[in-house]
Amino acid sequence: MKASTSPANDSNLIATLAAGVAHEVRNPLNSLQINLSILEQELSELLPGRENHVFAVLAKIAGEIKRLDDFVSEFLRFARAPRPNVERLAVGPLLTDLAGFITPECSQKGVRLEVELDGPESAWVDGFQLKQAVLNLVLNALQASPAGGHVVVRTSGDKRRLVVSVSDDGEGMSPETRAKAFTPFFTTREEGTGLGLALVHRIVDQHGGSVDILSAPGRGTTVTLVFPAPRGA
Ligand SMILES: Nc1ncnc2c1ncn2[C@@H]1O[C@H](COP(=O)(O)OP(=O)(O)OP(=O)(O)O)[C@@H](O)[C@H]1O
Ligand SMILES: [Mg+2]
Question: Is the CB–ligand 1 distance for residue 220 below 6 Å?
Answer without folding.
Answer: no
